[in-house]
Amino acid sequence: MRMPNAHAECAWRVRIANAHGFCDAAPRPSSAVSILCSPARPGTAVELKFHPGLPLVKVNAGSQPEAAAPMRASHVSQSLDVRKVPAAELLVALAVLLSAYVSILLTHVSGGITLFWPANGIAAATLMRLPQIRWASAAVLIWLALLGALLLSHHDWPTALEFASVNGAEIALQAAAFRILWVFPFPEITILQAVGVTAVSGVLVPGLVALGAGLLLETHPGMAYADGVRQWWSSHTIGACLVGPSIVLFSVERWERLVRRPYRLQNSLMLFLILLGSFLLIRYTRFPFVTIGALLFIGAFRLEALGASVAGLATGLLIMALWIVGIRPVGLEGSPATGTLIDLPALALLAALMPPVTVGIGAAARRTTLRALRMSERRFRESIAHSPIGMLIADLDGTWTYSNVALQKMLGYTAEELRSLPPGGPSIQEEWASTEARRQKLISGESDFYEVDRRFRHKDGHWVWTHVAVSLLRNEDGSPQHLLAQIESLEARLTAEAALAEERERLRVTLNSISDAVVTLDAGMRIDFINESAQRLLGLDADAARQRRIDEVIHLTDPNTSKSVVSLATLAALHGKVMRRDSPCILHRPDGMTCYVSDSASPLLDTSGHVTGIVLALRDATADVERTRELRHRATYDPLTGLVNRAEFQQRLRDAFRKARHLDRPGALLAIDLDRFKALNDEAGHAAGDAMLRQVAEACRIHVRSSDTVARLGGDEFAIILDNCSGKSVDAISEKILRALNPIEIEWEGTRRRVGASIGVSVVTGEMVSESDWMEAADKACYQAKAQGRGRIQVARV
Question: Of 217, 219, 514, 681, which one has the greatest count of Cβ atoms within 10 A?
Answer without folding.
Answer: 217
